[in-house]
Amino acid sequence: MKEKFVGAMQTFSKAIVAPVLYLPAVGLILVICNFMINPNIVSAVPFLGNEVIQIIFKVMYNGLMSVFNNLGPIFAIGVAFGLAKKKKEHAALVAFLCLFIFCAAQNSFLSLTGMLHEATGNGQNMMLGFQIVDMGVFLGIIIGVIVGCLHNKYCDKDLGEVLSVYGGTRFVFLISIPVMLVMAIAFAYLWPPVQSLITSVATFISTSGGIGFFTFGFLERLLIPTGLHHLIGSALWYTDLGGVATVAGETYSGAWAIALAQLGDPETAKLSLTTIFNNVTLVKVFGLSGAGLAMLHCAKPALKNKARAIYVPAILTSCLAAITEPIEFTFLFVSPVLFLIHSVLTGIFFYLLYFFQITCCTAGGIFETLLYNVPAGVAKTGWPWFILLGLVQMAVYYFVFKWFILKFDVKIPGRDESDEDVKLVTKKDYEAAKKNTATPSPAGMNNSLGAQIYEAVGGIQNIKNIDNCFTRLRIVVDSLDLVDEEKLKETGSKGLVKRGNEIQIIYGVNVNKFRKSLEDYLEANHLAIEGE
Prior knowledge:
Elements lengths: L1 H19 L2 H15 L1 H6 L6 H18 L2 H13 L4 H25 L11 E4 L2 E4 L3 H18 L14 H39 L2 H13 L6 H10 L5 E4 L2 E4 L1 H9 L17 H17 L6 H18 L3 H8 L3 H20 L10 H8 L4 H4 L1 H25 L19 H11 L4 H15 L6 E6 L3 E6 L7 H6 L5 E4 L2 E5 L4 H14 L8
Antiparallel strand pairs: 1-2, 3-4, 5-6, 6-8, 7-8
Helix pairs in contact: 1-5, 1-10, 2-4, 5-6, 5-7, 6-7, 6-8, 7-8, 8-9, 9-10, 9-15, 12-13, 12-18, 15-18, 20-22
Keywords: Cell membrane, Kinase, Membrane, Phosphotransferase system, Sugar transport, Transferase, Transmembrane, Transmembrane helix, Transport
GO molecular function: kinase activity; protein-N(PI)-phosphohistidine-sugar phosphotransferase activity; protein-phosphocysteine-sugar phosphotransferase activity
Pfam family, one: PTS_EIIC
């Protein structure tokens, strides 16, 4: 039962990633636009004050901010797409149609029963042109989940020759209609109390001092091995749980949307405290760099050079690209207690961000963080204090990790060459990884890398489903015994997580290359996953 529940949560977490993947890209362009229209920057670089340039970037800024004002539809489409095992585009279309039906039906019901307010606010808002009960991004997520589940169960439904036109994905749409109508009426009564509960939780987090921030930081790191950290992060970044604020006359929900809106608002003197929820970058840039340096320092003298080849790239990956798995999984697999300490330290430094009221808005690595905050100014973001606290965190991580590793003789790479589970990457492994992470020709991707992954996971009879998140290739397999972890290392894998019958192969931000390589290999060899 526990495995089923965790598996379901992992599937949901994986689906949430689909729409979330696009939001950092939107955020980065918004920051660039904000940089170009920032009065301080325009004063320093006069040609940017040209009317045409200002109009272009202001139009682009306002256009992209609309994404954060319409997260409900985006999540409805994205979650349904992410949950669907096949015919994903049909699931996405049905979810969007269902959202339209829900909004129109609930608006009609509220109007006919006299429950429709004269204006938005007080629990009601606009979505797709209809005034409805304000469920925000939760409505999109709920509809996405319902449509995704119905799609997986009935997308191949055969209604016979006479009714064949209504079979398959059209049948999914047909049975979704009454579900949407019932939901539209039910949520008119059920959601206001739920919204009150959500508001209470959000109020608790924002008014309970540093406890809420500590808890978020602690859980966001602790849940990484399960893949469920996306859930807690998304809840705070994109829903009411991360705060609600009115900026320049517009209402924004979620820590990420609020921070981006306030960065571009000249009237905002200081970013909201909810911005701190975005600051996972602190531990990625500073904390784990300190941990990596400690592990490198603890390597045996004879193995220093080999250890340096492992840890230096991992530290740079965490600091510059904000990809933490290479470092985190290095000590997670050999010392879960050390990973628990890492999670506690992350929570403590989230608390310190709150204690010192440091509202720096971060995303990605160190360069993105500077790009977001330096143009906005010190008073608004407090970015120099963020860096100072980060350097303190780096020192704390370094000394804590060094003490723990030496005290308990933790067999991290570089300390015990004979232990296969923590052995260093060999020259052969390194050369294979370097070869595979280079940009190969299409033929090489199809026939070499794809073949390697295919063989390492046990072949077509062992593959039940292929998917990916930010950094991991997720494959549901029939038998874990057929998975060859050593062969996966040769493909460039930085680690492997096993959860139930799902394996999560950690490749990093270029995970799509590896998924495409495997899928291209299957297609080229006319291999089809059972049920697809």
